Amino acid sequence: MLKRDLFLLLLLSTFIRCLVALLIPLGNDEVYYLLYARFPDVHYYDHPLLIGWAVKFFTANLYFQEPFFYRLPGIILSIPATFFVYQTAKYIQGQRAAWIAACLFTASFYVSIICGVFVMPDSVQLVFWTGALYMAALIFFKHDLSESKQLYLLLWFGFIVGFGMLAKYHSVFLWVGLFVFVLLKKRHFILKWQFWLAIFITMLFLTPMIYWNYINEWVGFNFYSARVGVESRIRYDLFVKEFVGEILYQNPIVWIFVFLFGIIHRAKLIRSNARIFLLCMSLPLILFLWSLSLFRETLPHWSGPAYIPLIILASIVFADNFSYSVARRWIVSAFSLISIVLVLGYFLINFYPGTIGSIKAKLTYGSGDFTLDMYGWNETGTEVGEYLKKNKLEKLPVVSPNWFPAAHLDEYVTRKTSNPLFGVGSIAQMHHYQWVNKKRGGIPRADSMLYIVPSNYYKDPVMLFDKNFKKINLIGEIPEHRSGKLTRYFFIYLLSDSIKPF
Predict the structure, then answer these.
(1) Which of 134, 296, 359, 500 has the fewest CB atoms nearer than 10 Å to its CB?
(2) Residue 132 host element (H or E)
(3) 451 inside domain
């Protein structure tokens, strides 16, 4: 019965993710990560390689260039990830706990939307994170495994975590958690050569990162060190932002469920080691990010995978102490909330009249409106492209000082014209565009270029380019509307009479 229910859960959740992928346009991060697929490499400035190669695979080497196909990695890989969560809870406690865990895992915004739909490194990491948890559950909680079989599976754990590291490097916290658990409960594993070989296998997956950084003056290491660098004073406001963000990203109902039954509830589990194991696989990453957020800004989705063991733990405790009818109320409430948010989000993005951002000045109209990252780019991008063609400007290079909105212009404007696009800001602003520029032949020494900027991300071209061009003229502006009201403008500037190259 529960296996049939799991199949229906996977079928329905996959259908809904496909629907969201079809209806919601690409966001800033998503169009940026498409560059990874268009310009494949063994590593990128700000992330490992797997998301780019996954997009290439699921789009048949970019044969299908539509948001739905770009998002197939998250949609498809969420299916085995949900199965791994189900199986992990099943091996520790049983099918009832497994079903609750699978449902609440699916009801998480982080799991079903950020990972399950969007083009994000997390989309690929999720399947390896849950796969590693499943493998660890087999090792420590499957009844009939001999020690030799456990050690053999430990090598597979190292292999799976290695692939997780090729998606996002904080997959290393899976090893941190396992190492802590082994120290607490399975110390004899430390004396086994297979344990250290498994760690070495994971480390081998760092080879692409080390090689790429070696040939690029270790610039990626500088980026990562800057991300975990700290300020000299404690920032409680950043900690609150991180903490509240985690609650919202996980789905408040799921988070409360985790807090009540994974952390607060003191009921004994059927196997005493299970709580310690799941806490070990979760808390190191959460505590690290909480500590980091006291000193610098963090992003709530970074902690997303760490909540997966807590969801499993809470489901196990709940199944051992409450009836299924009570569980059903939690599950229905969690799914109801995520459904409401998805519907409201869809209408807010696509039909909100005008903008929720600033309307004080024309040049910055719509600034602060996060919905514009996912609205209007296809239609307005086509209008901008037609304007360039009509005015015989489609051969001129386009320059942009930041990776956003550069990546959106790349996807929705210049990909449809003959205009090459180049990032011309600092590496902190351009990110991987420094390497994209090179693969496009380098920034040309052109006498004239174009600067296209939406008003919600407006930067004054005179301040940006007065040292490079004598003349900077606004030659076009294209208004964008939503539900009949103005949302923002797209300004097109002609930069001419070059003084010095970029």
Answers:
(1) 500
(2) helix 121-141
(3) yes
